[in-house]
Structures are given as C-alpha cells and as structure tokens.
C-alpha cells in the first residue's frame, strides 16, 4: 500500500516547480489529476529538448499522474473543476498570484463548495507583499534570495554570481510544497479542518541559506563567493586528479593531522599557524597549491585508496553518466527505466525510502487529456455530454 492511497489531488500546476511536488504526492499513491489547457497543455511539454513530440522536462516531472484537459475559462469547464474539487482532498496551483481569483478557483471560493479543502499555492515571491504579482522562474528566485551572490568563484578569480546546475529554486519549493501538504493532511486527520498553504520560491531559498544570514548579521559583511571552498574549514575543495575532478577534505577540524598524513605532508600539521580552521583559511592558497600538486600526480582511484587508509572523506566529482553507472546509484534504485509513447527513457527513482509504505512508479506521464473521459465519467458525465463539450473545445 502507498502512504497517500485514497488522497485525491486536483493539480492545476504547470512548468517545473509545483509539478515536482505533485509528482512526489503521486509517487506515494495520491491520485493526482492534472488539469491542462486543451490543445496546449503544461508549458513544459514544449520546453526544449522536445523528443518524440514531448518536452523531456514534462516527461521527468509528471509520472504517475492523470491528465484531464479542460478549458477553465468557460463556465462549463469551471463547473467540471468545482465538481472535481467536491471529491478532492487537496488543490495545488502555481499560477501568478491573482490568476485563480480571476478564475473563481481561489481558496475562499473553493472553501464554499469543499470547506475542508487543503489548498496550496506556489509562486515566485508569495501571495502577499510588494513583489507578489511578479512572475518568476527559479533563476530569479536564486537571484533575489541572495543564494546566487554567494555561489560561484570570487570576482578576483574571474568568477561571477552563479546559479545551480538545475532549477534549484523550483525543486526546493516543490519539496516545501509536499511538506506543507503533509502537515496540513496531518492537521486535517486530527481536526477535520483544511487550510491554505502559501509557498514562495524565494522564501524557500532564503530558508536554505544556513549560516549566511547569521554570519552577515554578526559581522556586518556579505559572505564572499568562495567557489567550491567552505568558509568554516580548509581543506574542503575541488582538485584535479590525473583522470578527473574530485572533492577532498571535510568540515571536521580534528581531521587536519590525518589529512596531512594522507597527502604525505606531516610537516604541515606541525606548523602552529595552520592548527586552527581560521589559521588554515589565512593560508588557503598555500594549502590549496600543495594539495593540488599532490592530487595532480595521482589517479582518482589512488587518491580514494589513500584517503580511505587515513580515514579521510573523498568523492569523485561524477559526471551525470558516471553517477548513473555507479554501483551505489544502481543499488539505491535511483535510476529507473520508463517507457513513454513507445520510447525508452532512464529517469530518477524515488529518493525517499519508507519501509512500510514505499513510493512506487506505476505509470508513465499521461499524454495531454489521456484521462479526460475516465475522470469526467467518474463524476457523472455521459457520452453525449462529453461529445458536446469536446465539440465546443471545452475538453480535449
Ligand atoms: C511561470 C509564470 C511566470 C508564467 O506566467 P504566465 O505565462 O504569464 O502565466 P500566468 O500564471 O500569469 O497565467 C496563466 C494563464 O493561463 C490561463 N490558464 C491556465 N490553465 C488554463 C486552462 N486549463 N484553461 C484556460 N486557461 C488556463 C490562466 O487562467 C491564466 O490566464 P490569465 O492571465 O488570462 O488570467 C507564472 O505562472 C508564475 O510566476 N508562477 C509562479 C512561479 C512558478 O511556479 N514559476 C515556474 C517555475 S518553472
């Protein structure tokens, strides 16, 4: 049994952010009914690269869901959504704030027909405040949250504020979305009450800034960009071995002596000025150059073996291909096979491993409107009515 079996979600979401969250709900057994605009669908269906007629971004974010194509800008379309909400537990949307109010599908309106509904809105900056009405994608949230300003290499090394390699703001907000819905479902279980959940991509990233905010408040200075280094400890950095990149060192100051043994430089452990993390930071470039020289003369396997001998933590910097082939990735079932529209794909598995109610990948993403008839029949629409709505382009 999946943990969320019996939970019905009306999923008005598009693009990347909130669909990441609703996919997690679907992975754990919720019935997620994705509402899409007829003949248009989720914007991610057309995002590049499009393969075999579908954006791969859509394919990766929508497994286990059902697709119902309904024009919500028609009274008959809206009536379908209201009817679906009557039988639902959760509604999720990620339009620009104001859109659902114009449609008459905002929390207050839907509470009138389903008073205990749990309703989650995901936006760039939140539903309230001076920026509420602005649209956003992950890059803008990474920019406004401050995260981008502390990511990347320093100006003096030719660096610039840098985004992450994926749409990180989307993923993090999508995960907070799931968390919020879980808290609300728990509250509903105990009290029978629904509630409104307001998630902003920018808030989600501010929440992730760890010590950057408290450091700034104490020292009055913005944290610098330090590339792959860590301000609290050194060595903790990226080095180029003979056959590729690796990440060496860790954040435990007590390991410095063993680290110096691992790289064959016990003399460094004797130097008074290098005995504290702060002292090592003052000599960061000297230590970097010593370790870089040492790493450049060895393969990654040699470095790994040497570090294992001295209890030092190590990881190769895997390319995506390397990660997909690692025994650990395969063992954890983090890459799975999926067939969609006759094509075979590999995609990520489910990172959450629950012992009694694990998630499962049951279905490929739906084609646009694949489940329109099935779902509308379940709420009383017959063949004649379906044909009439289809004729008027209200459904697809
Ligand atoms: C992503 C974003 C910038 C896109 O902006 P946009 O393309 O202008 O889209 P909006 O959300 O403003 O509006 C969607 C429109 O489609 C309409 N629409 C959506 N689904 C529909 C359907 N099934 N039937 C009819 N109309 C539909 C809405 O009614 C709305 O129309 P309106 O503006 O005339 O009221 C914006 O949605 C946003 O900021 N979302 C929140 C943050 C987010 O999740 N970003 C995406 C990260 S990948």
Residues in helices, as a percent range: 25-40%
Present as ligands are: coenzyme A
Instruction: Provide the CATH superfamily of the largest domain.
Output: Crotonobetainyl-coa:carnitine coa-transferase, domain 1
Summarize model confidence as the mean pLDDT. 96
Report the sheet-strand fraction.
Answer: 15-25%
Provide the number of structural domains: 2
CATH class of the largest domain: Alpha Beta
Looking across the biggest beta sheet, what order are the strands in?
5-2-1-6-7-8
- What is the gyration radius calculated from CA atoms? 25 Å
- What characterizes the major β-sheet? 6 strands, parallel
What does the overall shape look like? elongated
Structural class: alpha/beta
């Amino acid at each position: 049994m999946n943990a969320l079996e019996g939970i019905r979600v009306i999923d008005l979401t598009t693009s990347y952010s909130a669909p990441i969250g609703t996919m997690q709900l679907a992975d754990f057994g919720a019935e997620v009914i994705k509402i899409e605009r007829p003949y248009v669908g989720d914007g991610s269906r057309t995002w590049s690269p499009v393969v075999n007629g579908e954006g791969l971004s859509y394919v990766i974010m929508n497994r286990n869901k059902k697709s119902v194509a309904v024009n919500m800008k028609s009274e008959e379309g809206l009536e379908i959504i209201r009817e679906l909400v009557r039988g639902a537990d959760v509604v999720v949307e990620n339009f620009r704030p104001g859109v659902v109010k114009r449609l008459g599908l905002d929390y207050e309106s839907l509470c009138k027909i389903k008073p205990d509904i749990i309703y989650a809105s995901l936006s760039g900056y939140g539903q309230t405040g001076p920026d509420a009405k602005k649209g956003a994608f992950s890059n803008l949230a990474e920019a406004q949250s401050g995260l981008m300003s502390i990511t990347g290499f320093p100006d003096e090394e030719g660096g610039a504020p840098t985004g992450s390699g994926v749409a990180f703001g989307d993923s993090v907000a999508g995960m907070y979305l799931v968390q919020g819905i879980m808290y609300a479902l728990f509250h509903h279980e105990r009290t029978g009450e629904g509630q409104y959940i307001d998630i902003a991509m920018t808030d989600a990233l501010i929440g992730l800034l760890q010590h950057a905010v408290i450091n700034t408040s104490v020292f009055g200075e913005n944290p610098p960009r330090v590339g792959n280094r860590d301000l609290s400890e050194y060595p903790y950095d990226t080095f180029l071995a003979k056959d590729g990149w690796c990440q060496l060192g860790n954040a435990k100051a007590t390991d410095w002596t063993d680290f110096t043994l691992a790289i064959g430089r016990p003399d460094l452990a004797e130097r008074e000025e290098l005995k504290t993390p702060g002292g090592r930071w003052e000599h960061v470039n000297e230590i970097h150059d010593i370790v870089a020289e040492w790493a450049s003369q060895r393969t990654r396997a040699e470095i790994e073996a040497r570090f294992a001998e001295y209890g030092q933590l190590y990881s190769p910097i895997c390319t995506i291909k390397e990660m997909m082939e690692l025994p650990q990735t395969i063992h954890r079932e983090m890459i799975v096979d999926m067939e969609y529209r006759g094509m075979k794909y590999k995609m990520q598995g489910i990172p959450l491993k629950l012992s009694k109610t694990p998630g499962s990948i049951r279905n490929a993403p739906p084609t646009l409107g694949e489940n329109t008839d099935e779902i509308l029949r379940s709420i009383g629409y017959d063949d004649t009515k379906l044909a009439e709505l289809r004729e008027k382009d209200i459904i697809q």
